[in-house]
Amino acid sequence: MSVQGLTIPRLPDFMMPVPVVRAGEDIGKYVRLALMTAMLSVCFERIPDEFKPENFHWLFSTALAAGAVVALGATLTEKYSRIAVAVFCVFFLYDVAGDWAAQANHGWLAVWTIPLAMLFAKWWEQPLYADYLRITLGIVMLGAAAQKLLAGTYLDGSYIAYLSYFGSATENMFFVLCSADTLNKPCGWHKFLGTFIVLWQIGVGLLLLAGVRSLLFLTVEVGFLLGAGLYADEMNFQVLNIALLCIAFRVGMSYGLFIACGALLLIDIHSIGKFVQYVL
Amino acid sequence: MSYELPFSKPGGWPAQKVILLGLIILHAAWIVFHLTLVSRELINPWKLGGYGMYTTVHPKPGLIVSDSRFGSFEIPLTDDDRDQIARENKYFIFRCQPLTVASLQTFLKNNARLVGVPLRFIVTEQKMLRDPIRAELLPHAILEIRWTGQSTFDYAGKVCGKIFRGKSELKP
Questions:
Q1: % pLDDT > 70, chain A
Q2: pTM value?
Q3: Using CA atoms, how far apart are residues B30 and B118, in angstroms rounded to an integer?
Q4: pLDDT bucket at A1, cuts 50 / 70 / 90
Q5: Is A148–B134 a contact, with Cβ atoms under 8 angstroms apart?
Q6: Phi, psi at residue B51, to the nearest 5°?
Q7: Which positions in chain B touch A122 (Cβ < 8 Å)?
Q8: For residue A273, which of A242, A236, A235 has the smallest C-alpha distance?
Q9: Distance (Å, rounded) from C-alpha B166 to C-alpha B168?
């Protein structure tokens, strides 16, 4: 498959990270699927709070879930996509405003990105919206790297060393690389991993700002985000990032990637660590 | 590969472009401001949309309430008490913000048995320490209540090295 001068090995359609569009097929539906996935990640982030036994009121909770399903479904349609995003955002922004101090960072990224689709009648055809997402994600990557440099816990490997011995079931996966002495003096592997993560984020941020739209770049970044999500046992932010990247690259999301993201969001409700422990 | 400058196809400056560019500038400015606040240890880096999660251990702010007549005798709190106080103090994300008077009043209203009891509130935070690398729950802020009448009290405390004090009364 050749994309913008770059050739990557041809995989079965369902394994491709981006949709394989047939001649004459509208790519818009795949872009709308990507935004729907971003909205789905927002819904899943709120499930633990909204559907806690003490917060569960059957009529309200059922209506909320039904409304979300209808809004997400309508986002996929060409005719009602914009209004569906608008309706979704009214409830989402109301919810954020009601408890803004409790919002996690993925909630804020969704605030900066999803509602802006409303500015355009056919947002999925708008290079301007895609450019906006690309630059926003680039800034977020650089901001995240700057936070890590400021904390001073990545280049010296101390945070990776900490997670390796005190992290959750998935966060401690790198403990095998070093002995317990890494807690006194972070070992070379943990320093390498910390440094690699920071450099990776800076590289991705710069490439996004520069407007590099290589399919290989997108594939590697999606893989990295999925890996980071599994490592940190936190998929909402990663799925949101992946979905927004699919729009920013103007390729949309393949059905295979959507199924993978949906499955990870489902597992994430109870945490990936617990799932791994259950399976093992 | 294609290289494009941001907003590469000029085509004039419609309202949408102005709005999006404005938001990009605002977002970038907020991240820089957030970094400044984090560097001064004024906020929880995991919150407020600065993308500082996973840079250090989650502070997991907690609260210990004790009867100051009996040293460290801890008064058991319900989950509702903890949620209420956390919510009324913005989940302690503003690290140098003293406990709000409103949260004290709500707490005392919900725990009438503690009216008249000299109370000590200690806000704790989990911090990453070194040599060896570990996380520990450390006291971060303190506030004490001294009763001056049946429904009036003085409070004083310390947070981020600053002392604060004031007077209040129970709300009916």
A1: 88
A2: 0.87
A3: 42
A4: very low
A5: no
A6: 60, 40
A7: none
A8: A235
A9: 7
Whether A103 sits inside 8 A of B49 (CB atoms) is yes
CB atoms B8 and A211 under 8 Å:
yes
At B72 the pLDDT is 72
Of the partner residues B3, B27, B45, the one whose CB lies closest to the CB of residue A147: B45
Domain coordinates of chain B in residue numbers? 13-55, 62-169
The mean per-residue pLDDT over the stretch A174-188 comes to 91
Tokens (6 digits) for B66: 């004790």
Closest approach of chain B CAs to the CA of A259, in angstroms? 27
Do B47 and A103 make contact, defined as CB atoms within 8 angstroms?
yes
Least confident of A85-89, A180-184, A209-213: A209-213
Residue ranges of chain B with per-residue pLDDT less than 70: 1-13
Chain A interface mutation, best of B26, B48, B133, highest count of A Cβ atoms under 10 Å: B133
R_g over Cα of chain A: 20
A216 burial class (0-12, 13-18, 19+ CB within 10 angstroms)? middle
Q: Dihedral of CA B14/B16/B21/B25: which sign?
A: positive
Over the stretch A5-52, which tens digit does the pLDDT of each residue have? 445 555 566 566 666 667 677 889 999 999 999 999 999 888 776 666
8 Å CB contact between A206 and A142: yes
Residues of B within 8 A of A159 (CB-CB) are: 54-56, 128
